[in-house]
Design brief:
The protein is an alpha/beta fold. The protein folds into three domains: 10-80, Nucleic acid-binding proteins (OB fold (Dihydrolipoamide Acetyltransferase, E2P)), CATH 2.40.50.140; 145-210, no CATH class; 219-432, Vaccinia Virus protein VP39 (Rossmann fold, 3-Layer(aba) Sandwich). The chain has helices spanning 103-122, 177-180, 247-259, 276-285, 298-307, 321-324, 371-378, 392-404, and strands spanning 18-27, 31-36, 39-44, 51-58, 65-75, 130-132, 145-150, 156-159, 166-168, 194-198, 206-210, 219-225, 230-236, 266-270, 290-295, 314-318, 359-362, 384-389, 407-416, 425-432. The longest helix has 20 residues, at 103-122. Bound molecules: S-adenosylmethionine (SAM).
Length: 438
């Protein structure tokens, strides 16, 4: 587009510069891509198709990529709304990316991102629909676990975008009423670094001062009321649990519907947490079946063993999935000491891993399972795998490895489990297309 009078030339476009751009497509990470005289700008607070004045927030002369905030909307998208949160906007809270976007349109943006990642990284064309988590209509007041930072004056708040600076807040509109009802945002937290508020499905909300030892954090009870599973789980307040109250039930139903476990089958639940998928699989395969769950966090494993005690055909293995399978993870953390030298990885799989499996659930952290783990898993010859993914890029990378190894993506569901943010959760089901293992 043409440059306005007074607009800096490309060479001068640095942090603080303002320029008018046409906002291009959405990209992974909650920003849209715009171009200005050969340079790429990652723009927050804009929408595809808009014309916006942006202020560069990061970047120096000569950088090919710059970060920017839309500070004025000259031609608005029909999907733009007034942000319900007063703390959303340029230079303000770093927590939400899409407060300025109609909720249905947020889901379309996320669907575009998932489809684009699959196309780019796995060469797979898919029409993606992002479904709301049942019961969520407006995308507000859903977050049941929220960590707030504390400033030196003892005020709790949120970090500004890509900054350690704290923005004190009186309310957080995506936090549940029970989280903010603890008055955590009004209290004086002098001397603390951060506070974590957990509003479990059963019992009172608890506030944990951070840093906190997970071993001494309170244990809370979460209830999963799904079609495939209806029961409670005990979990450390500092341990992993889905933050949207409807998410665990939604994902477990999607996994069980996708895998269709049969009585007597042998299943693996990898990155198993406190046992949500392991429990549902155990119920479906029955006592003639077997579930082997692998989880690295020792507190989660101790809790999980109690959670699954009534189904002794679930066996919990504590350890990193890559180590338990005897492979070197491709992730940066695995086997890397401070200083970057690699520890030799374990040479053979743990005896806890059977030679074959019928079904596998993978629910890794954002980095994904990685090529080595995917390779080790498919070597067991499962008839189907369910991959629960919080990062569409990691899912797309691991999808490529699965396609190379004879699996087909047979169903893909995506859920808006984190409204107002760019995050999206996918449940992908892969089935083996090649012959059975001998
Ligand atoms: C996204 S959570 C899923 C937990 C569980 N499936 C659930 O739905 O509640 C990922 C889990 O993987 C565990 N984890 C992270 N890295 C791991 C690794 N390399 N090996 C095994 N578990 C790991 C975390 O402690 C966490 O419990």
């Amino acid at each position: 587009m043409s440059q306005e009078p007074g607009t800096p030339s490309t060479a001068e476009l640095v942090a603080g510069s303002e320029v008018v751009v046409d906002a291009g497509p959405i990209a992974h990470g909650g920003f849209v891509v715009a171009r200005h005289e050969g340079r790429v700008l990652f723009v927050r607070h804009a929408l595809p198709g808009e014309q916006v004045r942006v202020r560069v927030t990061e970047g120096a002369a000569g950088d090919r990529f710059l970060r920017a905030d839309a500070v004025e909307v000259l031609a608005a998208s029909p999907d733009r709304v007034q942000p319900p949160c007063p703390y959303a906007g340029p230079g303000l809270c770093g927590g939400c990316d899409f407060q300025h976007v109609d909720v249905a349109a947020q889901r379309r943006l996320k669907a575009t991102v998932v489809a684009e990642q699959l196309q780019r990284l796995a060469h797979l064309e898919r029409d993606v629909v992002v479904e709301p988590v049942p019961g969520d209509t407006h995308g507000l007041r859903w977050r049941t676990r929220t960590e707030f930072a504390v400033d030196p004056a003892g005020r709790a708040g949120m970090r500004r975008h890509r900054s350690h600076a704290l923005l004190p807040i009186d309310d957080c509109l995506i936090a549940s009423e029970r989280v903010v009802g603890t008055a955590v945002l009004q209290a004086d937290w002098a001397g603390e670094k951060a506070v974590d508020v957990v509003a479990p499905s059963d019992g009172d909300a608890v506030v944990v001062r951070i840093p906190s030892d997970e071993a001494v954090a309170p244990v809370v009870t979460e209830n999963v009321a799904a079609q495939s599973l209806s029961r409670e789980f005990d979990v450390s307040a500092r341990g992993f649990w889905q933050v949207h109250p409807g998410a665990a039930a939604t994902f477990v139903d999607a996994v069980i519907a996708g895998l269709d476990p049969q009585p007597g089958e042998r299943c693996l639940d990898l990155y198993a947490g406190v046992g949500v998928f392991a429990s549902a699989l155990a119920q479906a395969v029955g006592e003639r079946g077997q579930v082997i769950a692998v989880e690295s966090d020792s507190i989660a494993v101790a809790q999980a063993r109690l959670n699954v005690a009534s189904t002794p055909w679930v066996r919990y293995v504590q350890g990193r999935v890559d180590h338990v399978f005897g492979v070197e993870s491709t992730g940066r953390v695995s086997g890397t000491r401070k200083g970057g030298r690699r520890r030799p990885g374990p040479r053979r799989p743990s005896s806890d891993i059977p030679p074959t499996a019928d079904l596998v659930v993978l629910d890794p952290p954002r980095t994904g399972a990685g090529k080595a783990v995917v390779g080790a898993v498919v070597a067991l010859g499962p008839r189907a795998l369910a991959y629960v993914a919080c990062d569409p890029a990691a899912l797309a990378r691991d999808t490529a490895y699965l396609l190379e190894r004879g699996y087909a993506l047979t169903s893909l569901r995506a859920f808006d489990a984190f409204p107002m943010t760019h995050h999206v959760e996918c449940v992908a089901v892969f089935t083996r297309t090649g012959p059975d293992l001998p």
